[in-house]
Amino acid sequence: MDELAAARECVMAVGVRRTTFSDVAFRAGISRMKLYRRYPDLGSVLSALIARDLGAIIVATEAAVRDLPAARQRLVEALVRGAQAMTAAHWCCASLRSTQSC
């Protein structure tokens, strides 16, 4: 399992506040030192995870609305699909729950 998938699983399991650098390394099956060579801290790991997942959402959304005829229609549909995809990204919801009171 790659480091970012491991970080996502850790966040899903215990939330952002309780996820540690050691937990991510353990779940990824690598040493902390190897993880430190790639990322200076846990915030960097989580930032990379967010960037990768949001990038995938953007690419999928662009592909889904590409053939719609009007610019306004593409924009509205892209916003709706993007919001739905973010809601479906359960690890994002888990991270929000751990940082905000519901």
Task: Please give a structural write-up.
- It is elongated, with a radius of gyration of 16 Å.
- The model has no long low-confidence stretch (mean pLDDT 87).
- It has helices at residues 3-14, 21-28, 32-38, 42-65, 71-88, 90-99.
- α1 crosses α4 (42-65), α1 crosses α6 (90-99) and α4 crosses α5 (71-88).
- The protein has a single domain (3-99), classed as Orthogonal Bundle (Tetracycline Repressor, domain 2).
- The relative contact order is 0.15.
- By secondary structure, it is mainly alpha-helical.
Features:
single chain, mainly alpha, Tetracycline Repressor, domain 2, 0% strand
Structure in a nutshell:
The longest helix is centred in the middle third of the chain and has 24 residues, at 42-65.
Record the SSE blueprint.
Blueprint: H1 3-14, H2 21-28, H3 32-38, H4 42-65, H5 71-88, H6 90-99
Helix pairs in contact: 1-2, 1-4, 1-6, 4-5
